[in-house]
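This entry is retained here.
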Amino acid sequence: MRRLMLFRHAKTEHDAPSGRDQDRRLDNRGRHDAAEIGAFIGRNPPFPSLVLVSHAVRALQTWEIAWEAMKEFVPAPEVELMPELYGADVPQLLETIRNASVADPHRLMLVGHNPGMHEVAIALAGSGDAAACDALADNLPTAGLAIIDFDIDDWTDVRIKHGRLELFVTPKLLKQA
C-alpha cells in the first residue's frame, strides 16, 4: 500500500517584487490556510515520510508553515526541493511519483502547482468517496490537499485511474466542518 498526498501551494500575492512568478510569496490568507492544513495533517495520520517541494517561494513557504503547524505531532519526513515540480504537467508528475521508488517511502507528499497537481489528482483517482471525487473534479484550490491510496508495493506501479481518493480537504471545507 502506498499513499500519495498532493498539496497545492497556498494563496499568494499577485506579483513578486522581483517580477518573477517563482518568487511570489504567500499572502496573509495563504499563511493562515497553510497552517490550517498543516494542523489538519498533524491531527490525521498517517503522515508523509517523504515530501517533494517545488522550488518556487510560495510552495516552499506553504510547506514550511504547514510543517510548523504539524511538527509536534509528526515524525520529521525527508524533504527535497525539486525545481521540476514548478510548472509540471501530468506526465512529469507521474515520472516524479514513480521515481520515488528509489527512496521507497510508503507515504509521499508533493507540494506544487496547478494545473498539474489538479490534473494528476483527477487522473490517478479511479475510485473513492463520491462527494470528495465530485469536489476534486471542480478544482484543487490553493492549500487544497488530495490524498490518494494505491494498492501497490512500489511507486513504479502507479497507474492512471488505479488510485482511491481517500480524502479531499481544503481550508474552506475545514471551516464548514
Q: What stands out?
A: The CA atoms of residues 54 and 86 lie 5 Å apart. The longest strand covers residues 2-8. The longest helix spans residues 28-43.
